[in-house]
Amino acid sequence: MTSPLRCLVITSVFGLLASVRGVELNTTGPACKALPSTILGLLQTISAPPAGQLCPWILGDSLACTKLAFLSTSLEGDPNRIPTCAAGAQVEPIGSPTAFEDVRPLPRDLSNATDLIEAEGATWAWLYRNVVNLAIYTGCAASGNAKETLLVPAGWELVSILNFTDPTGRSNVGPVPFAAIFHQPQERQLAVIVRGTVFGFEWVLDFAWNQTTEYSRYLGNTSVHWGVAEVYQQLWPGVEDALRTLVVEQGAVFVTGHSLGSGVGTLLSLGIQSYLDEQLGADVAPVVSASLAAPLNVGGPEFVDYYNQRVNARRIAFVYDSIPQVPCEPAFPACTQKDVLLSQFSVVPTDQPGNAKEWSYEAIGGGVVFTPAELPQDSEAWSAVSILQVCWVNNYFSATHGCSYNCFFSQFVPGYEANNSCWLSEKPNGITGSQCNGWPTNYPIAA
Description:
Blueprint: H1 3-14, E1 23-24, H2 37-43, E2 47-48, H3 54-59, H4 64-76, H5 114-142, E3 157-164, E4 176-184, E5 189-194, H6 200-206, E6 211-212, E7 224-225, H7 226-246, E8 252-258, H8 260-280, E9 288-293, H9 301-310, E10 312-318, E11 331-333, E12 358-360, E13 367-370, H10 393-410
Parallel strand pairs: 5-8, 8-9, 9-10, 10-13
Antiparallel strand pairs: 1-2, 3-4, 4-5, 6-7, 11-12
Helix pairs in contact: 1-2, 1-4, 4-6, 7-8
């Protein structure tokens, strides 16, 4: 490909000239330091899209598959990369979970249900803290630190840690921990904890959005996201074993996850509810309470209709987080490598089965979307990430896809303030709270 054409394609990958209104794209950020001056010059002519409009950015022209390949390749990096072990960083979950108010069939949005949010917030925080602890433990386990064990909440027992191996064959890493099951015998509670993305190769599974019915035994025979389903099917036997031996009538079952783990948690929560209804009877089986932070979409309208009737879920998303927006509604293109205009970028083929041209997607119900105004500290600073500045992409994702959730959940439980990740601006001395990783930075502020 000639240099001018290559520059034109890369420019289109980073943003749209007109179809997504935004502010000036600032090219002085760390992710753009090594770009040639020709590309920097082109980038300076385009707009940075609003963070809540990732789908118009992706789908607004004929380069959707090239953009998606760029994102996939950039996020994956080295597929054999082992994360750093943050030994000693796990934090004891405070309190204990309680079953959610049953609002099935799920409405699409619960953001204005303030009483429900106040009643359930402490449980969301307890569940999310376990997700973070599992991610920390996974990094240590993969790096060979046998001294760092998974922190089990007080009064709970560790039933099992469920491992996962890359189904695409792109990585030599594995098997690695992906989920943990805890049991509270006195209260007859079971908690299934699913972590988010830790390894580079796991990002590729987000981008394997072609659909399958291969594992639909407890999923209503509906078509679901292949990459998410591949993780689900590896975890399901261990989950089913725990359900068979530990769950009884009038018990409580919780499922939680973050990011890719919330996509997997979406399928697990439906599988668990379907299994319990079949084994115990729908009139006496426990109602699964699912807290899903930053979940990607995992199926189309048929799946969502089936899910919303059966699972009592909360789909929790920060308004500026890009991940819960994808795969885009109502349809996402099927891509092959021939659709990618730059050979440096690779894409998982998503046209099979059936030589598909696109796949239908829709968000599940139970949505709780929170804004900077609902964060307990430094809320004014969070307006910075209302614009997706690609030259600060790592800082952007650290804030919108990680710190925002830790900050939001921390307000529901006294005692979480010290590790709340709320501060994007520099935290003043003598103030509680903690800094978001990668912040403060000179991220361009929207006018």
